[in-house]
Design goal:
Blueprint (H helix, E strand, L loop, with lengths): L1 H22 L7 H9 L3 H4 L8 E5 L4 H14 L4 E3 L7 H10 L11 E5 L5 H7 L4 E4 L7 H4 L2 H14 L4 E5 L3 H5 L9 E7 L25 E8 L2 E6 L12 E7 L4 E4 L2 E4 L5 H16 L4 H9 L8 E6 L2 E6 L6 H13 L4 E6 L22 H4 L3 E7 L4 H10 L7 E4 L4 H9 L5 E6 L1 H11 L1
Parallel strand pairs: 1-3, 1-4, 2-3, 4-5, 5-6, 6-9, 13-17, 14-15, 14-17, 15-16
Antiparallel strand pairs: 7-8, 9-10, 10-11, 12-13
C-alpha cells in the first residue's frame, strides 16, 4: 500500500510541477511538493537512493540561503551533480519539490549530492525522514518571535537533531556561542568541524552599555566578548565554566581586504563578490565544507569568482537624481539590522537614512513593533554623516522616530511620514539635500517603491 501511495504521490507531484513550469513558474518551488506530501505524508522517506554520506543540510538563523547556494555553486563548478532548493523553499514542501525534480519515474534519486537549506524550526521533522550525514549550523539568533519565540527554543530543537543523528559530521560557527556549543552534544561516532573569521578591520570591541547580554549555552552564566565581527559573533568566553571560542577555528578566514574585495583562508587568496562582514561566515563555511569533500582550490577560486547570490543584501535604484541603496534585512532580526546599520556607517559621505518597518503579516498573529531596534547600536550610524532621517509607515513611524530620539537624534533631523503611500515617500526622498540615500524596509515595500520610481 505504501509503495502504491508513494507512486501516486510521485506522479501527482511531477504532474503539478510540469503544470507550474508551464503556467506559474514561481509556484514550482513549493506547490508540487505540497501536493506530493498531501498524497503521501511519508513522501520524503520513500525516495530511493539517498546516501547520508552525500546529504548535506544547512540550517540556522542567518546566512543559510547564501551558504547553501554558494556550496551548491562550488559543487557544480567542480563537476558534481546536485539536487538543492536554491530558491529558498526550505520547509518540507519545498524540499519535496526539489526531490520531485531530481528523481526518476520510479522514485529513485538521480543526482550525486543532496544539498539542502533547511528551516531551523523544521529541521527535526525533515531529519526524521531524510538522514543527513553532514549538518551545517550558521548561527542561532533572535528571529521571528511570533513563530520561534526565544532563540534558545530553536537551539534545543537543533540540539535534539544533533544528539539523535549518528555518524554525523557537524559544522559549527566557532564565533557564535550557540552554534559552537552544539559540538558538545555529538554522539561518539560523530565529529565536529568549526569555521570562523579572525578579527579584521571592520571588527569592533564592546562599548560601555552595549555589551552583549547572552547566557552561556552550557552553564547559563554570563558570556563576555573580547571583540565582535557581527552582533553576538566574535571572540567569547564564559568565566564560570570555561566555554569559549578558543583559538582559531579549524577553518578560518585569516585576512580580509575589503577594498580589494578579497580574503585569505588557509593561505589562499579568494575573490569576495560580496565584501560585507556577514558574508564572510558564508564564505568560511563554504570553503570549510567543500575542502572536506575534496574540492580543489582551483575549483573553489573559480566558484567564488563568479558566484552570484539570489536577492543580494544591497540593491539600488535611482529616483529624481538620487541613488537609493536598499539594505535588505530580516525584519524582527536585530543581527541583520545591526549589520545593515554598520555597513551604512562605513560610508562617511553625507547621506539620508530612510527607515520603514512594516506590519509582519506572513503568519498569524500579525503584529508590528520596534522591539528589535532596541538591541541595535545606532551610534556609529548617527556619527557617520547622516543629514536627515525619514521614518515612514502607517503603523509604527512614530515608534521608529522615538527609537532614533533615544539614540540622540534631534527632532529637527527627523521627518515622520505616517503613511505607506509610495508617492509620498518618494517625494520626501526627492527633497533630501543629498543624493546619497539609504533605505531599510521590507522587501515588498522596496519593490513597490522601485517600480513607482520607474
Amino acid at each position: 500500500m505504501s509503495n502504491a501511495r508513494f507512486s501516486f504521490a510521485l506522479t501527482g507531484g511531477k504532474l503539478c510541477y510540469a503544470l507550474c513550469k508551464a503556467i506559474a513558474p514561481k509556484r514550482g518551488s513549493n506547490l508540487p511538493g505540497a501536493v506530493a506530501l498531501k498524497l503521501d505524508p511519508g513522501f520524503l522517506r520513500h525516495v530511493k537512493g539517498l546516501d547520508p554520506a552525500k546529504t548535506i543540510f544547512i540550517t540556522g538563523t542567518n546566512g543559510k540561503s547564501t551558504a547553501n547556494n554558494m556550496i551548491v555553486h562550488a559543487f557544480l563548478t567542480a563537476g558534481h551533480s546536485v539536487c538543492s532548493n536554491i530558491e529558498g523553499a526550505n520547509m518540507k514542501a519545498g524540499i519535496a519539490s526539489a526531490l520531485l525534480k531530481n528523481t526518476s519515474a520510479g522514485g529513485r534519486f538521480k543526482r550525486e549530492y543532496l544539498i539542502l537549506e533547511v528551516d531551523e524550526r523544521s529541521l527535526a521533522r525533515v531529519a526524521e525522514e531524510i538522514k543527513p550525514g553532514h549538518l551545517c549550523v550558521t548561527n542561532i539568533q533572535k528571529d521571528q518571535v511570533q513563530r520561534n519565540g526565544d532563540p534558545d527554543y530553536i537551539y534545543q530543537k537543533i540540539k535534539g537533531v544533533v544528539e539523535k543523528t549518528d555518524s554525523l559530521t557537524l559544522y559549527v560557527n566557532n564565533d557564535e556561542p550557540r552554534s559552537k556549543s552544539l559540538g558538545n552534544s555529538l554522539a561518539e561516532d560523530s565529529r565536529v568541524i568549526s569555521f570562523g573569521v579572525m578579527q579584521n578591520s571592520r571588527g569592533s570591541e564592546p562599548e560601555p552599555g552595549w555589551e552583549v547580554t547572552m547566557p552561556c549555552p552550557l552553564c547559563h552564566d554570563a558570556l563576555s566578548f573580547a571583540w565582535y565581527n557581527l552582533a553576538g559573533v566574535g571572540a567569547f568566553s564564559c568565566a564560570a565554566c570555561g566555554f569559549s571560542s578558543g583559538g582559531p577555528a579549524d577553518f578560518a578566514v585569516t585576512e580580509v581586504d575589503y577594498p580589494g574585495e578579497a580574503f585569505t583562508a588557509e593561505g589562499v587568496r579568494y575573490h569576495m563578490s560580496y565584501p560585507a562582514e556577514f558574508f564572510l561566515y558564508d564564505y568560511a563555511l563554504c570553503l570549510c565544507l567543500c575542502t572536506g569533500f575534496g574540492i580543489g582550490k582551483g575549483d573553489l577560486r573559480d566558484a567564488l569568482e563568479n558566484f552570484e547570490n539570489i536577492g543580494g543584501r544591497v540593491e539600488s535604484f535611482t529616483h529624481a537624481g538620487k541613488t537609493i541603496k536598499y539594505m535588505r534585512i530580516k525584519q524582527e532580526n536585530p543581527e541583520t539590522l545591526q549589520s545593515a546599520l554598520d555597513t551604512i556607517a562605513i560610508d562617511k559621505d553625507k547621506k539620508a537614512f530612510v527607515l520603514g518597518p512594516a506590519v509582519v503579516d506572513d503568519m498569524i498573529p500579525h503584529y508590528s513593533n520596534t522591539f528589535y531596534t532596541f538591541d541595535c547600536n545606532f551610534d556609529p550610524l548617527i556619527k557617520s554623516g547622516v543629514e536627515r532621517f525619514i521614518c515612514f509607515g502607517n503603523t509604527i513611524a512614530n515608534d521608529t522616530a522615538n527609537r532614533l530620539r533615544y539614540a540622540g537624534v534631534p527632532d529637527e533631523s527627523i521627518e515622520i511620514l505616517d503613511t505607506d503611500d509610495d508617492k509620498t515617500i518618494l517625494s520626501a526622498i526627492s527633497s533630501c539635500g543629498t543624493d546619497n540615500i539609504y533605505l531599510i524596509t521590507w522587501i515588498k515595500k522596496y519593490e513597490k517603491l522601485k517600480e513607482r520610481a520607474g
